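=== Structure Prediction Worksheet ===
Name of assembly: unnamed complex
Input type: mixed (protein and possibly other molecules)
Chain count: two
Listed entries:
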Amino acid sequence: MSFTTHTGNRGLVLEEKLIFEQGEAGRCGVDLPKPAGIKSRLGGLDRDSDVGLPGLSEPQVVRHFTRLSQKNFGIDSGFFPLGSCTMKHNPRLNEKVARFSGLADLHPMQPESTVQGALELIDQCAHWLLVLTGMPAIAMSPASGAQGELCGMMAIRAALDARGENRRRVLVPESAHGTNPATAAACGFTVDMIPATEEGRVDLAAFEAKLGDDVAGIMLTNPNTCGLFERDVRKIADLVHAAGGYFYCDGANFNAIVGRVRPADLGIDAMHINLHKTFSTPHGGGGPGSGPVVFSDALAPFAPIPYVVKTTDGFKLVETADEKDGTKPFGRLKGFHGQMGMFIRALAYMKSHGADGLRQVSGDAVLNANYLLARLKDKLSVAFPGYCMHEALFDDRFLKDTGVSTLDLAKAIIDEGFHPMTMYFPLVVHGALLIEPTETETKESIDQFCDAVLSLVAKAQAGDAEFFKNAPYLTPRRRLDETAAARKPVLRWMPETV
Amino acid sequence: MRYLPLTRADRASMLETIGAPSVDALYSDVPDGALLSDPVDLPHHLGELQVEREMAKLAAKNIGTVSVPSFLGAGAYSHHVPATVDYIIQRGEFLTAYTPYQPEIAQGTLQYLFEFQTQVASITGMDVANASMWDGATSCAEAVLMACRATRRKKAVLSGGLHPHYREVTETYCQYSDTKVAGRDGHPEKQATANELDDLIDDQTACVVVQYPDVFGRIQDHTKLADACHAKGALLIVVFTEAMAFGAVKSPGSFGADIVCGEGQSIGNNLNYGGPYVGLFATTSKLVRQMPGRLCGETVDQDGKRGFVLTLSTREQHIRREKATSNICTNSGLCSLAFTVHMSLLGEDGYRGVATLNHETACKTADAIDAVAGAEVLNDSFFNEFTVKLSKPAAEVVEALVAKGVLGGVPLSRLYPNRDDLDHYLLVAATETNTDEDIADFASALKEVLA
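=== Predicted Assembly ===
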């Protein structure tokens, strides 16, 4: 039954204005002591006009953001198989410990003597990551995966400069995440694309043909963005090393192999680890993340400041590039010392799982993805043959002649109560659907998702394109006009002018 | 293991559906010898209680700022965060959401980002703001790169009053893009003049970067500097480390700044030993297409209802790849939500009220410190932070204050480890969290240490 309500609300889905449309002068959500009336010492630059912020009471603010939250889908809401993003359960224990006093209230510039526990925590977190990757050195400060890439590629640039070599070409597979070429460009490298084989992996012959004495290295995601393990990875490492280059591994998909395969055993020189993927720190609607980078001995001396060292006098924080210890840091990537709040959560996650549990994490993630692949492969079109790793990739051949696109199908999946898969990425297949269930899903939830997808596929193939073109129907908002948003951008609220 | 739901029976039946003999068989593409047959050499799993105890033990080895009188600033500030903020950001629909690529089921995130952008633009006095960067230092570096793109020039001039971490990050970002970074070393006893950077600004200069209030706490009008920049076709970038300040001082937009960026930690976010924080980034309408990072924009849905989407994404790495305006992908989503909730609670009266309280507390602290023999407050102007000249090296004084139960500021030698002319200077911050008793404790401890 469809009808409109007086308020525009629909049961539990409540319309909510912007806070700027709700404020009243004189309302405030905090109580403050009266100012003492001390004469200001602001250099004569005292604010002389209103900021333009609305006044709301605390209950109004709570209700506003509660209503907004109800228009969001999170992992806590339901199945969230967004490929390449590793949307696994975020344990609340990790939130609790990150808020402990003695951690959350530490100032980054306190004397070392007052933060020995914090430095020990960073050292422990680093130790777990080093053992899991088998690598000898780590930089903890990068703020996210993309900054981790920047960290790794800057170390490569610094190592080449130290060798006095002007190598500027970086090889990047076509299937790479967009941050890879963007990062290489930010470090002054040019990007040379390597094609993929029919099997969704690096074309070894094409790769070898591109090697030369101007090649700085390769940026390779492994397992790759097609959800496949690069079975020639060692050969790739040997070849790039023989050509005088370095091997940067994008560790976004570490969840597939954590505890089972050490990247060090594959010949890599640097790899970032997204703590917000493999180690379950919350994605938070787009961050904050954290992207520590592990290094081989060849790149370790160039790691950025700051870093923690253990001495006989306790833990020290090295904050300057001029320590006389043989290191040549390429610089500093971030204010202070990195995403401490994320180290705390990731360490709690690793301690909770232990070496045995982390092995189970990768095994169950890969098992869930292959189960999903097995359940869907006959009705959808599998992009590449064989077992997948932690995510399954399909192309849109199964939608051929239905008039339904990957996007349309995804929007119909939303109405079924799931977050859609990643769409149109990687770019190497047409109309990609990349599905990553993660290890924290039950067999029942995967079955329910597969059943729903299969029923939608049958519906699409039965010729009901119009239904899909207009999906979703049951969401707080239906399809949004992105073209209009970009053509004439409205990026903030403005008071109505009379 | 409590987070892993598959049972032995599930695994067996799933392997049967797959047609694989074992989980190991699914790893058949891994090269010989690289697939481990046993767990790595790390402890095995622990229950929630045991993990909590281990983490509590680490926390207990630290002295938290809440437990003692604390006067630390230098780019990170202790403010009271209302309980509502932490409640809202822990709602699972916010905490466990992804970047809002599916706007139909992410209007919650998108609407608060739109509100966040409006709040940031309002406090900085600029036209538009983005949906956040990683922190203040990376915002500063991205601003310089943006200015280089917008002007097609390759030189940045950095003021000596810029936070040294911001300067180092900017230099690190610029070193491999052929961008020249020029500037002067600052000193707390040499007041910067309005035109001290003029001789460095030339036809090749993309931007001048100043901090407001500066790293030593001083407040300066940059209107003339904006004019000097614009006369040479350069952009003025105004950086800040204390977002609370704009409740008390004129906005950088009023000077004619082209980009205003800095640290938003002060509003809604804990100190967290330095991260995660939230970079704020605002500019003029004219420059919006050169901006780095995510932008949320207003639009309508199929039924004509107002809604929000991520927009202008043709600037970004997932579309433009090596030609993107930045490599940034994940930003500081949840920290920007904390900012937005706190700012919503404050409103006009609260924001300006708490800024006044900060300033008054700092004035009281400055007077108490200045009265101590061997300590001299150098600033004529400040918001909630100022520099003190001490009769003894500041790093030693700070250690001695710890022994007396006070976290008494940041020695400039910590911020500038490679300079030997700043050993006797201490940076002191005071906020609304400091009581009169804290100030008295600090002053008396300092008196004993300097005696």
